Amino acid sequence: MFKYFLTVLSIALLLNASLRAQAVFNVRDFGALGDGKTLDSPAINKTIEACFQKGGGTVDVPAGTYLSGSIHLKSNINLFLDAGATILGAPQELNAYDPPEPFEGRAYQDGGHTYFHNSLLWGENLENVSITGYGMINGGGLTRKDKEVGGGPIVLGDKAVALKECRHVLIRDITIFHGGHFAILVTGCKNLTIDNVTIDTDRDGIDLDCVQSATVSNCRINSPNDDGLCPKSSFALGRRMITENVTIVNCQVSGYEEGTLLDGTMRPSRSKTGRIKFGTESNGGFRNITVSNCTFRDCRGLALEEVDGGIMENISISNITMMNVCGYPIYITLGKRNRGPDSLTMGIARNIFISDVIATGVDSMSGVHITGMPDDPIENVRLQNILISFKGGGTKEDADRVPPELGKGYPEPSKIGITPAYGVFARHVTGLELADMNLMVEREDFRPPIVCVDVNGLEIDNFKAHVAPGVRPSRFEDVKGLVARNSPVLQ
Fold this sequence. Notes:
Blueprint: H1 2-22, E1 24-26, E2 35-39, H2 41-53, E3 57-61, E4 64-68, E5 71-72, E6 77-81, E7 85-89, H3 111-114, E8 121-124, E9 127-133, E10 136-138, E11 159-164, E12 167-172, E13 175-177, E14 182-187, E15 190-195, E16 198-200, E17 204-209, E18 212-217, E19 220-222, E20 227-232, E21 243-249, E22 252-254, E23 274-278, E24 285-297, E25 300-306, E26 311-323, E27 326-334, E28 348-362, E29 368-371, E30 378-392, H4 396-399, H5 413-416, E31 424-443, E32 450-465, E33 474-485
Parallel strand pairs: 1-3, 2-4, 3-6, 4-7, 5-8, 6-9, 7-10, 8-11, 9-12, 10-13, 11-14, 12-15, 13-16, 14-17, 15-18, 16-19, 17-20, 18-21, 19-22, 20-23, 21-24, 22-24, 23-25, 24-26, 25-27, 26-28, 27-29, 28-30, 29-31, 30-31, 31-32, 32-33
């Protein structure tokens, strides 16, 4: 009986090993050469299709350089890039990328968000799809151009990875260099994990558009000329869809020159965009989002922008460190750009909690910038345990400046200009709490540290700030319900 049991067990183990072996499909067995010269995407697609027809498994890309046009991801497939493997985007003249798919109705978003098939790796309506391994996706011939829909021909090959309306997605351990308009664009996806991914690109790093139940963790994203990590909620699905239940943790964003994160030289760029930014596309809005334990370096600060009529609520951000911040450290705004079918609905921004932030080397344009609209205030914002060191240099003329209302304008602080306070500028806010704030300057700044206009319910506790000689420490206009505690500088 015991021998019989061992025989059955041995057969079972052999069958299991055989099944595991059959579930791994090597692209070289299907004709891929990996010599960097031969177009290998047809062989890679053939491998993926064969694996898919067998019920799924792993498509193995061994070490080598695989010149590729569009690669078609499938359900139940793990595309595994071995260490030393590079998928290299083909040059545009090879016409190796798929044409853009039809789009029904009017497109309110640019071409980069509207089309998905014209990408290096793409998938639509998939389940259980993953891209893993320690290899690289090098965009190569991908373009960073951005064409408005109807404004000219849509360029091919403008995204490294594009996934639309997929479920159970995993992207882990890979490196993406020169990712085109988007290194990773995920739209309408649910149950998404992006972990330990390194991106060094010259436009957007990761865009989480209309996603639900997503985690982005342990990623390094360098994007000098556009946003690093960007929750969005565009109208690309032809309907409003909120981005919600998202966790972003242990990530680094920066604005070094492209390629210098990967080579370790980390040279500062002129644009210095980088950053984590909510929006600009915000038709559906953002809800139940946590950002924690993240660093910003040589880039813009944290931006939360609700300007397309959606709802931004229940946002928790903590443990953020920033160095050499371009423009501003924290920017929260409501606007009425309304880039969508409904030009009348006003957005909502409420219940935003930001804590434990250290920012140094902050440009003098603006500090913490919280602005609603005259009849539509931002509601319930709490900032706690914030230390910011500014470069300073603001003038008395800057202190007298009245920044324009955002309205339909593009929601960048640079469009509004220098703020009359070097530290905190709040306008059209209901329920604003500032606790344990310390504002410092590297050189004298002749603006007050805080200016609040049209704020209903302002509570300040333990507020410390440098004040230049002869400068009023604060300016409060149309402020109701002011309570200030433990803040001698404001007395």
